[in-house]
Each structure stands twice: as C-alpha cells, then as structure tokens.
Q: What sequence folds into this?
C-alpha cells in the first residue's frame, strides 16, 4: 500500500488545501522504523503555528520529526479532475515526516493522532491513523508457543501443555516437527495433533493460528525441571530481491529487472518451559501411601460372601484418578492364607476426560477357599495426595466376612487336611473346575519321536511299495508264462502219448485181455484230452468232464461222442463183454478218429 | 519261494521302522517331578522335568507338565513355550490347547484374532482331525494297500474281480490324495513357520541385531510371535502387521 489516506481530516481550514497523510514505504514491518508523512501545501500553512506533534499508541514509538519543502506534481487522479474543471496544477508543499517505530505485533493497528498548536491552541489535525503492520521477511513466518497449565506443581501431579502455532503472511507450509521430546523428567501422555484446526487471525492479513492441548505430563522428581524446546521446520517466502537479467537478440541487448522471492526452509522452536516441582509434604503422609498424586477414587468388593468349597470367589478392585497418566500403583493386599489363588487379572485404561487424562486400573483376584468355615478378610486401604486440597487422602474398604460351606463329595475330600489326603488330589480337583489350568498328565516311559517325515527309513519304507508291486507283478507274469510253456509241450507230446496208449491197447487185444483193452482206450482218451487242454480230467466225474469240455469250447457232438465212449469203456471194464478182434480193431480206429477230431478242433 | 522271501524281508523292514518310531527310554526324573509338583514344590518339579528334557527325553506330556509347573511358579513365558512345544508334538490334545489358551489370556500384549469364517473353520478342524504323524503312517498304509490291490488285480482271473480291484485302487488313491495334501501342508507349515515366546519379564525389539540399535518396542512375558530368522544372538521376529524387529535369543524361547 503506497498511500494511506486519512478517513477524515478534522479541520475544515485544511480541507480546501488538500493536506494528506502517507507512509514512505510499501510495507510496514514489525519492529522497524518507518516514515509517516504529513503533506501540507505551503500556501495553506497556518500563520501562527507551533511545532507539529504526533501522539502514538498501540506500541508505536515516535523516533523523530523531519520537514522538507517539495514541489508536488499532480497524480493521475488530479489530472482527471483538472480535465473536468478542477484544480490539478503542481504546487509546493511542506512534508513533515514522523519517524515511527512499529510494534512487534502485526495486523491493522492505529498509529495514533497528529496535533498542531495554532494560535496557542492545540488542535487535532488527523483522526486515527490505521496502518497494516506485517512481519519482516527476515523474521520467522511461524511462531510456536508451549504454555503449561501450571508452573508450580507437586511431584507426581498432572498438568498439561498447550501447543500454539501462529503463521504469518510469508509462511508457505511444509510444517514438520523435528523434535518434540519432553525429556526424561516427566511421564507423558500425548494427544493426536492431526485434527488441529488453523483459523484466520482477526484483523491480520493472511495470518492463521491454532492451538491444542498437546501433552499431559507428570514429573517424576522434584526441583526446577525443564521441558526442552520443541523444534519444527517449515518453508517461508524469503526477502524480495531485485534480479537483473540481460538478453541478447541479434546485435541488440536488453536488460530487465524483476523482483523475485525464493522459498526458504526455516526452523522454529518453542521457548524452554520451566516448571517448579515441589516435593510432597512429609507431614501427614500415611504409612501405606501409594505414591499417586491427584484426585482418586478407590473401590474394592467381592462378588459373593457365601460360597461352597471348590467355587471361586472374585475380589474386584478399581482405582481411578487423574495423577500420573497410564500408571496406578497396586494397593497393599492382605494375605489370603485360607484361599488358593491364581495370578490376578490386571487391566489399565486411560482416556482424556474433562481436560485431564484419567487412568483406571481394574484388578481381579480369584480365590478358592481351602476349607469350609467363616473367614474374615481384613480391610484394604488406598491413599493418595490430593494437590487441590494439599492433603493426603485415604479410602478404606472392608473387612469382609466370607462364609464357605461344604462342597460336593470330591471337592470336600480335596480339602481335608494334608495328613489324611494326598495334596495331589486337592490340586487336581481345583484344576478341574475349568477356571484354571488343567492338571498334569501321567508321562509314559516312552520317548515320543517327532513326526517321521524327516526319517529316511520312513521314506524307504514308503518307496518299497513300488518295487514290491513291480517284483510281484514280474513273478506272477513269469509264472504264468512258464505255465503256458508247459501246456504247449504237453500238447505237443499228446499224440505221442496217445500212440503209446493205443500200443498198450493193441497188446491187450493181442493177448485177448478185453478188460485191459478197454482200460487202455479209456486212459488214452482221457490223457489225450488232458494233454491237449492242459487240464487234468482224471478223477473228474463224466458230468464234470462234459462241463469242462463245454467251457473249453468243444462242440456238443464231440462231447457226446467222448461221453459215450467213456461210458462204453467203463461198462466194459466192470461188466466185460466178449468182442471179436475185428470189433476191437474197429473200436480202436473209431477212438483214434475221435481223438483226431478233438485235436483238430483245439 | 522268491515272493515269500521278498515278503519276509519287507515285514522285517516294516517291523524295524515301527519299532524305531516307538523308541522306548525312561527318565528317573519324571516320577520325582510329579511328586514334587503334587507337593507344591514347583521349582523342584521344574528342575526334575527340565533335566529329563535336557537329556533328550522328548515327550509331549512331559512338556505339558513342565508348562504347568512353570505356570504355577509364575513364569508365564516359559509355561506358554512348553505348552507350544507339547502341542507341536501332539497337536490334538485338548488339555494342551486349554492350558495354552488359559496362559495366553494372561499375557499383556495380544494380537487380535481374525474373525472366524465358518467354512475355513470346518476345513481347519478337518485338517487337524489327525496329527501329522498319524497322517504320515496312514499314507504309508494306503500306499501299500494300493500296491497290494494292484498285485491282486493281476492275480485274479474274472473281469468282475479285476473291476472291483480297479475301483478299490481308485477310491484309495482319492483318500490318499486328500490326506497327502493335508499332510504336505502341515509339513510345509512345520518347516517354514517357526514361532517363539517371550520367556523373560520383557524383551526389547530393536531395529538391528545388536545392542547399540534403537529400541522400537517392548514385548511382555508370554507374548507369542513369528520367527523369521536367527542372526547370531538375536532372532528376527514379526508380531502382527505392525511390529517387526530383533530380540535377544536369551529373552525368548523358539518352538522348533
């Protein structure tokens, strides 16, 4: 902004003379000195005037006054007005330059008011003079702050820090945290800053700000502790630089000047925060002080006060408070000598509620009564220091009376004195309830081998099935082939054998032994059939023979002829008939023909 | 005669193998440990049973009992480790599973289980219906059955008998394939997926396998994780999708 016009000029005297106010630079930067020029035409200067003065406010500081006379040439607007009948000529004027240093803060700020003493009377010659103060390009474009909710606290007490961001006009972005370590003197719960919302700053151009509760801390020791500076990096627009460029076009050279602003990566850091941590008072400290500092609540209760031996009793303890985030020490518990217990179940939860991190610890203790009876469980206390009341607080619950009745037979037996019952049974029964681990196993004396897939012997045994199949198949086929070869040999020798039998028949015929003749015929026929079919017919009944011959494919006629001959031979052997030699010759010939017929059909 | 000799040799081989897999060797500390456990002397029970294991006595029940003794002694990590080893040897034992789940419920660090799919759940149950050892011996028996029926098919004469043998071989082969697939997957898992348990009170996960590297996370006792590799005195581990790094071997037990 080259010129800041006054919204009104107080004096009508100066209205016609057109006095004006302007600043001597385009940009007023925070903390820098600038010139506020009050221009008055010479002919309009009051005669009985004294020294012109400025009364600054809002952090502006008057540094000095210069005055000079200058010829003022009309601007474009003045020329426009003269064209349409107004003034517009050059004139001489006195320029009063007030050297004013701008405050550190930025935004649209009122500089103050100009006064003149005329005829001994002090008169205001200007109204308010609002100017826009901006950050210097050399200054940080980001201001970060870390504000603790308390600067003096007790050891272990919780407080929070608010992280604030203020971005200025020349802030460009790429904001990244490079170090947000809170040191080793605090236990910290950090919040998620991803939803932090930046809002425009009222009355400031292109400035944004955001703030959020960043972390809840609890000091681990007393003394003067420090939260180290949090460091961030970002990019800002640098100072404008005039860049001169020369260009050559043929024989002509051109020179041009331009203003350039480059992006600069910069770091910003919060100031180191000092916290005074007071030790907890020794006076009034309970013997069972838990070490927790804050506003706490304590609750302890049993789920039942009547149960049977073998049943489980649950003691539920809940401690809730806004002390050290995420940490709650356990209360001192009485010894449960009359009960058996398993490891307790602990759970801890923390959440932000009412601007504080509230931590809740739940402890569940499972107890199994060892015997029947009435048992008193002593009171349980929990104490803490309340910084708001500056006093130690304590909560005591109990005592409780637990009535244990007889359980079932086995459970009852389990809780008999150790002298009369083996301890093993007790534990086994307890573990059989289902809310505990199961009982040990009896270990056999056998060493358990791992899975056999890594054992070469297993795979050898596996693969042995293949040679078994191949060898078995080979042996069977060879046996069959051998049998087949024996059948061929037998078939080949069938006729020879038949001739031998017929020779025996001839011999019997020659000797007149009819019985031997028929026996030789029958044997010859059966042996011949056996040889050519490689099937033993000897010993078969005639019906079996007929059936087998049928299966072998011999036709019905031939089978009937064979059957008739065999019947005839059998009859003749057991009831001999007298036949002539010619008849026997014919019979022999007929059997020979039958054998040839059967042989030719095979 | 030759076939008889071959079959005899085969029987001797099978007998030897089965006897080899069921090797028998006792350990005097078993009974002493049981007595100590029953008397509530858990540390003594641990000493006795651990001694048996250190001397090479591998038994699922012994690991389970040792896990119980560690649990009773308040050493949750070592209890979980021993339950896991017991389950590796005998995956279908209900007591092993119950005690492991019970102990794991007491650990501080947990990775949420994925939602159960009913179909996958059924397949998972079928897959684990038999232990790997039982599956491998069943496969061996089935393979031999296929070989024997194939031989029988050559021996029989009638077409009907031959078809019956072919059908039997076909069915047995399908069964063999199903069990074989399941067993092969189990062998793959056994050989590739190694788990571990934090046995110390807590174990730091570091970014590199040395003492100078940055601590990324801390696991509490009893937390189970997947073992990716072993590098010197460190083990590279993964827990869920988020946690990956190195832990000291001395702080963990690796279930092999």
A:
């Amino acid at each position: 902004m080259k010129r800041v016009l006054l919204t009104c000029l107080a004096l009508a005297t100066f209205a016609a003379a057109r006095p004006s106010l302007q600043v001597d630079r385009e940009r007023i930067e925070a903390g820098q000195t600038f010139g506020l020029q009050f221009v008055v035409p010479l002919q309009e200067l009051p005669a009985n005037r004294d020294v012109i003065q400025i009364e600054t406010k809002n952090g502006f500081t008057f540094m000095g006054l210069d005055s000079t006379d200058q010829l003022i040439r009309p601007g474009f607007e003045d020329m426009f007005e003269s064209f349409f009948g107004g003034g517009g000529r050059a004139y001489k004027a006195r320029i009063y330059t007030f050297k004013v240093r701008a405050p550190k803060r930025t935004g649209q700020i009122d500089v103050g008011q100009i006064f003149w003493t005329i005829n001994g009377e002090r008169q205001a010659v200007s109204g308010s003079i609002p100017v826009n103060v901006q950050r210097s390009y050399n200054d940080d474009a980001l201001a970060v702050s870390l504000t603790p909710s308390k600067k003096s606290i007790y050891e272990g007490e919780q407080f929070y820090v608010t992280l604030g961001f203020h971005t200025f006009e020349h802030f460009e972005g790429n904001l990244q945290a490079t170090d947000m370590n809170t040191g080793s003197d605090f236990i910290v719960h950090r919040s998620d800053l991803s939803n932090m919302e930046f809002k425009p700053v009222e009355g400031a151009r292109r400035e944004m700000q955001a703030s959020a509760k960043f972390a809840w801390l609890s000091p681990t020791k007393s003394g003067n502790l420090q939260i180290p500076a949090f460091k961030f990096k970002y990019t800002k627009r640098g100072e404008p630089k005039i860049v001169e460029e020369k260009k050559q076009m043929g024989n002509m050279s051109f020179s041009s000047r331009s203003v350039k602003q480059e992006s600069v990566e910069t770091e910003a850091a919060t100031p180191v925060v000092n916290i005074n941590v007071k030790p907890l008072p020794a006076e009034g400290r309970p013997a069972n002080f838990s070490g927790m500092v804050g506003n706490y609540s304590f609750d302890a209760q049993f789920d039942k006060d009547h149960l049977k031996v073998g049943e489980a009793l649950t003691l539920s303890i809940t401690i809730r408070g806004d002390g050290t985030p995420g940490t709650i020490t356990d209360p001192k518990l009485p010894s449960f000598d009359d009960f058996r217990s398993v490891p307790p179940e602990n759970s801890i939860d923390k959440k932000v509620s009412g601007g504080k991190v509230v931590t809740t610890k739940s402890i569940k203790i499972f107890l199994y009564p060892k015997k029947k009876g009435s048992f008193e469980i002593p009171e349980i206390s929990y104490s803490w220091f309340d910084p708001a009341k500056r006093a130690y607080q304590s909560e005591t619950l109990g005592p409780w009376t637990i009535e244990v009745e007889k359980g079932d037979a086995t459970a009852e037996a389990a809780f008999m004195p150790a002298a009369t019952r083996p301890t093993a049974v007790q534990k086994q029964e307890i573990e059989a309830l289902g809310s505990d681990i199961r009982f040990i196993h009896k270990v056999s004396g056998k060493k358990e081998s791992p899975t056999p897939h890594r054992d070469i012997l297993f795979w050898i045994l596996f693969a042995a099935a293949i040679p078994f199949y191949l060898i078995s198949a080979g042996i069977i086929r060879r046996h069959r082939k051998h049998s087949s070869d024996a059948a061929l040999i037998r078939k080949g020798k069938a006729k020879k054998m038949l001739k031998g039998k017929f020779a025996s028949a001839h011999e019997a015929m020659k000797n007149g032994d009819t019985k031997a003749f028929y026996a030789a015929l029958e044997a010859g026929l059966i042996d011949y059939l056996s040889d050519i079919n490689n099937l033993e017919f000897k010993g078969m009944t005639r019906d079996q023979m007929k059936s087998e011959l049928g299966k072998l494919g011999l036709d019905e006629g031939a089978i009937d002829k064979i059957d008739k001959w065999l019947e005839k031979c059998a009859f003749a052997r057991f009831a001999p008939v007298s036949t002539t030699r010619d008849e026997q010759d014919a019979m022999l010939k007929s059997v020979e023909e039958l054998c040839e017929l059967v042989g030719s059909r095979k | 005669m030759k076939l008889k000799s071959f079959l005899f040799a085969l029987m001797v081989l099978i007998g030897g193998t089965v006897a080899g897999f069921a090797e028998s060797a006792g350990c005097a500390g078993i009974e002493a440990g049981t007595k100590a456990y029953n008397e509530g002397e858990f540390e003594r029970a641990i000493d006795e049973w651990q001694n048996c294991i250190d001397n090479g006595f591998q038994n699922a029940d012994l690991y389970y009992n040792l896990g119980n003794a560690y649990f009773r002694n308040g050493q949750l990590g070592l209890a979980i480790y021993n339950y896991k080893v017991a389950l590796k040897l005998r995956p279908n034992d209900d007591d092993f599973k119950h005690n492991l789940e019970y102990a794991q419920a007491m650990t501080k660090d947990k990775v949420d289980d994925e939602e159960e799919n009913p179909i996958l759940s059924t397949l998972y149950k079928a897959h684990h219906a038999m232990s790997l050892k039982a599956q491998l011996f069943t496969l061996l028996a089935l393979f031999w059955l296929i070989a024997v029926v194939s031989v029988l098919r050559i021996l029989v004469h009638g077409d009907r008998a031959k078809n019956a043998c072919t059908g039997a071989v076909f069915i047995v082969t399908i069964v063999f394939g199903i069990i074989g697939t399941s067993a092969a997957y189990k062998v793959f898992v056994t050989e590739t997926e190694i788990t571990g348990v934090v046995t110390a009170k807590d174990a730091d996960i570091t970014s590199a396998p040395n003492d100078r590297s940055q601590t990324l996370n801390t696991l509490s006792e009893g937390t189970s994780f997947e073992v990716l590799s072993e590098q010197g005195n460190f083990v590279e581990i993964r827990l869920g999708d988020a946690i990956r790094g190195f832990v000291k071997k001395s702080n963990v037990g690796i279930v092999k």
Remarks:
- The mean pLDDT of chain B is 85.
- Strands of chain B lie at 194-198, 202-206, 215-220, 224-231, 234-239, 243-248, 252-255.
